[in-house]
Amino acid sequence: MKYSELKSYVPAFRPAILVSRLISFRALRIARFLSLVVATVSVVLIVFGKVISFMPSGFAGILHRPLQVLAPYFFESLLLSIFVFLIIFMTTSFFNSYYFLGLDNGLRRVKRFGTYPKISYEVALLVSGSPDDDLILGFLESPYGRLAMKRAGILTDEFRDFLSKRRHKIDPASLEISSEQTLGFATYAFGLYEKDEEFSKFLFSKKIQMEDFRNILNWIDRNITEAKKSARWWSRESLGKIPGIGRNWAYGSTYILDRYSRDFSTTAFFRDAGLGRDDRRPEILELEAVLAKDREANVILVGEHGAGAMEIIGHLANKIEEGNTQPSLENKRVVLFDSTLFVSTAGNKTAFERELARVLNEAVRAGNVIVVFADLAGFISSAKTLGADAMAIMADYIATPNIQIIAVADPSHFHESIESNSAIMELFETIIMKDTRDNAVIRVLEDACIREEYRYGIFFTYPALRAISDSAERYFPSGVMPDKAIDLLSEIAPAVKSTGGTIVTADDVLHMVESKTGIPAGAVGKEEKARLLNLEKVLHERIVGQDEAVVMIANAMRRARSGVGNRNRPMGSFLFLGPTGVGKTETAKVLADTFFSNQHTIQRLDMSEYSTDDSLQRLIGSADTNHPGTLSSMIRENPYGVLLLDEFEKTSRAVLDLFLQVLDEGIFSDMHGKAINVRNMIIIATSNAGSDLIWDIMREGGNLETEKVRVLDALIKSNVFKPELLNRFDGVVLFRPFNASELQKVASLILLRLKQRLSEKGIGLEINTALVQMLMNEGVDPKYGARAMNRAVQDKIEQIIARRVISGALKAGSTLTLTEKDFANGV
Question: Which residue range or ranges hold the PTS EIIA type-4 domain (predicted)?
């Protein structure tokens, strides 16, 4: 549709546009309310005056005279208020006759001013208010344009500054917007966006990409449509929601079932739960199709808790109540069976079997009942504790077309208790609930945030919703989407309100996430910025040599913190190869202490303990023994930090294959099939494999960086690691043995740590040449590297200190100075 054609439809809406500009609809609503109040009060007073005229004298007699005198005024006020109400009603009706045009997407076309408008009222309003030479100005200064900018998190001053500085404007003659149906607000506004390159660049500079802006426009357009549908109470859709009188009289009553169940259509929680779940549309349609079958129309919904099973059922119940479902499902009742109440009431096997048979018999006789079991596996298990077989009782009833069952099960219980039971699987069809995609999650959040906005008087920007969706998936491993995203949204709203804020931004979301998880998620502060930009220098304060490892780690940390890294993998993954005592494990500890501000964020596994056939089950858990798994529990409890895998080459092949997935996807599944997220971890695997070859290269005077391929080829040929596993790491680092000058630096660092430990007890330590030289003499061992120094500190220096503390020669407040004589005497 060209702009000239689009503009030709505007006169059809001109009367309504004129009314909207002359009259405030907020004032009309207030006037309508006041007229109704005045009319009601007038009627009450007129009736009261008539009633007291028949009452005996006394107090009534005192009021009778004044009311009789004022009666004409009451009658006049009644007529006046009715007149005002009718004027308002007719004005609103006149406006609505234009306002609702296009609501049915062209199915109900109305002729106006000799033409059939192909645009909505909102588009007509935008075009009529836009100068022909500046369509973007007309859009941005309109109420809808300002709302779009506010949803985008762009301030009024910012977009007005853009308007004043731009160089080019859209040529209306070149504007052409395609639309198969009535051209709505979102399609028109997005057409302007596509045509105006400066405007799109301006939005991009504000971190609003094309898909974001499209979603914002669709969000606003959807709310406009919903408001119109709500206001048009006389439409078939609205009137269809009013239940018919006696609609269920043709079906039997269910007095016994009603004791143990709740009706979805009459319970507010379930009725509201089904609203706004277009993300589950495929499952809803599949559920409806299965239930519409002639026989064995029963379903098991399989999904994690919070995946939206009850919302799907609630949506179907709403469709049935509104008469918008398939004919075979019309007049059906969807009820939630309270299995816990039923089992506790029965108490024993005989009562359980008898009462369950009565409930099912009653439902079959009624002929229009769909029974929902929120936890079928739990119900079967509870029946077994009483000695009853629930499925054996239910099987004959379920096979009939007069009763239908919807069961809900989480994946672990489904695989353990239900899938292996052929009797159950023959009667049910299975619907697997897949994870909700990002756009669908944001769509759910758009609907959910409207309720929070009304509740707290705040305003959510679209970037805030995007941050909620991303953060819920990235930083909260437990739970499923969109449930955990909705939970996060519900927490953010009151938090922002409590600080006096009115607009929820992406920064508000990230600060909330950071406070809840301890994971840096917000904007990089000055101190953190300085630390990240100089991370190599900071790490080298405690790591001697090993430049390649330090550079790789620093780069990985900067990528992760800036958000440019691959979010579907761990923050970083490295394999450290080298001899014992060259700083592989120490580097991981320094990283945890420096970047994560706490050495406790390091989770360490000695992989030599996982070399047997049962190692994989010990790590991820076993369904047979119900052992949760060391690695699974470790990551669930501490999802952020450093995962150190010592002696990685000694673990079993099955465990190495597990880490192929972990390094590539950042997730693995535990014994119950639940996903464990390791995308907020730095994974460092250490190995002594190839140490002999590294020593040979160093003795030959070779360069490890140029000889790395030779070392890795040797590991692959000796079947230590598969090439695909080595390729999964972000970096494989060769740690070389320390030279003499580096060993001296290591000695100083070890003594400095000892000094810090002594200072906590109030004892000072002078680090002098004799002390360092003793460590160099006693603690240098080419085979064990710096570990020999740690043993020398323990056996020589700490032994002397311990003797002096116990003897009383060394007390708090004193400073210890050791000489060569002290080491010679050992005291």
Answer: 297-440
